[in-house]
Structure formats: C-alpha cells, structure tokens
Design goal:
Blueprint (H helix, E strand, L loop, with lengths): L1 H30 L7 H5 L7 E5 L3 E6 L6 E5 L10 H8 L5 E4 L13 H7 L5 E6 L1 H12 L4 E7 L16 E6 L7 H7 L8 E5 L23 H18 L4
Parallel strand pairs: 3-4, 3-5, 5-6, 6-7, 7-8
Antiparallel strand pairs: 1-2, 2-4
Helix pairs in contact: 3-7
Pfam families: Abhydrolase_5
GO molecular function, one term: hydrolase activity
Keywords: Hydrolase
Length: 251
C-alpha cells in the first residue's frame, strides 16, 4: 500500500513538472515571437542594377555596385526580424556603403553581441562602423568598446551606451538619433548614457518620429504614435547617418 501511494505521488510530481514546462514553453513561444517585417521591408529586399542583396545564415548584405569603402554593420532591435531594417540598409547602401544587417539568435542582440566578428573576419573591407536600434544599439556599443581596433564609429537609433560599453575615454565618433514621440525609450537611461560616450558625440531628435519607425515592422507595443510617416523617418535617419559619416571622414 505504501509503495502504491509513493508511485502515485511520484506520478503526480512528474505530471506537475511536465505541465509547468509546457506552460513555460508556451509562454516563451508567445512572448518571444518577433515583430515581422512589413510588406514595404520585403520589397526593399529586391536587388537592382546598382545594388545586390544576399541573405545568408549570419547576415543580410546590401552591396552597392559602386562602393566608397567603409562598411556598415547593423544590429536589429530586440525581437524584430532583421528584414525589417531593409529600407534603412538599402538607403545607406545606395550612398555607396556596403551594409550588413546581422541576424541574431532568437532575434535578440544580447545573445549575439560579438556576431559582427564574423563579418569582419570573413569580409575583405578596410573599415567598419557599427550601429543598431534599441537593444541592438546598446549591444553594438559594447562591441565597439571591445573592438576599437576594428570599429571606426558607432551610431545609435533610440538607444544608448551603458557602462559595459563605455567609449568615454576614446575619440570614436558617435551618433545618437531619437524620435520625439518615442514611447519606449528610457529617457533617464539615455541621459545617463551620455557619460559613456565622447563629449564630441552628435545628437539628433527626429520631430514627430517614434521608436517603431526606425524599422519597418508595424507599431510596437508601448510606443507613441508618430506624426511623420515611416518613410520620412527612415529617410531622415539615413541622411543623418550618411552625413555624419561624411563629416567624420568615415568613408
């Protein structure tokens, strides 16, 4: 009788653990679903006579026919499909800069901070800058801090550098762009992050822009509504980045 009760107790424990694992798995599945690239983003993945686009395991490359030299490495925002940044990457590449959108494990840059190493090791380019959106920007900052011999500049879209990626003691050019209607960005963290970048850092605020429209994946939960179009925000962002590169001789 005692043995039978013990078996029942063990069975109940096993069933309980399995039920818990199933619940945790389902919760992870629901909450780790990435924002999908929009139709506009998918269209931006189409090559042209002056731009080739290749997608492989670790990145998507936008390669202009007439390259000016410096290559751009981009880290996507957290839980956002990399293709969502195709309009931005296409705009940068059209100015002559080969642009790599890095594919992250589970679409989380925090799980692939050093994935830019593969681009640098496998591609034959002389110079690189790195940047990213939101979580991707923070992780790009950490990569830049730890690879100062490889990276010549850093740009941040709705993001900031933390202490773990401090560049305060360097002369690395840094660009920060935020939207005035960003409902997700932690402004206190943004202000705090200014102590971790050089005093020569450049700051731009996009009037009417929000957090979501640095990519093309729809409206992100918690954001505020933008008063400019997605296309306008991405075009202005592209101009700020390429102008900053020119000003700082990153070409």
């Amino acid at each position: 009788m005692v043995q039978r009760k013990k078996k029942k107790w063990v069975r109940r424990v096993v069933i309980g653990v399995l039920a818990l694992l199933i619940c945790l798995g389902f919760t992870a599945y629901v909450y780790l679903q990435p924002y999908e690239a929009s139709h506009r983003a998918i269209e931006a993945m189409s090559p042209s006579d002056k731009l080739s686009i290749t997608s492989q395991e670790d990145w998507i490359l936008f390669q202009p026919t007439d390259s000016v030299g410096t290559s751009v490495i981009f880290y996507p925002g957290g839980l956002v499909e990399p293709e969502s940044y195709a309009p931005l990457a296409r705009g940068i590449a059209k100015q002559g800069y080969p642009t790599y959108i890095v594919k992250m494990p589970l679409d989380l840059a925090v799980l692939g901070i050093n994935k830019a190493e593969k681009v640098i090791e496998q591609q034959n380019h002389e110079s690189y800058i790195i940047g990213g959106h939101s979580l991707g920007g923070a992780m790009a900052g950490r990569f830049a801090s730890n690879h100062q011999n490889d990276i010549e500049g850093l740009f941040l879209l709705a993001s900031y550098v933390d202490e773990g990626g401090s560049l305060a003691s360097t002369s690395m050019p840094v660009l920060s762009i935020i939207g005035s209607n960003d409902g997700i960005m932690n402004i206190e963290k943004l202000e705090e992050g200014k102590q971790y970048v050089p005093k020569t850092a450049t700051y731009h605020e996009l009037s009417g822009g929000n957090h979501s429209q640095f990519g093309s994946y729809g409206f992100q939960e918690g954001d505020q509504k933008a008063t400019i179009s997605e296309g306008t925000q991405i075009n202005q962002t592209t101009s700020f980045i390429t102008d900053w590169m020119t000003t700082n001789h990153l070409k």
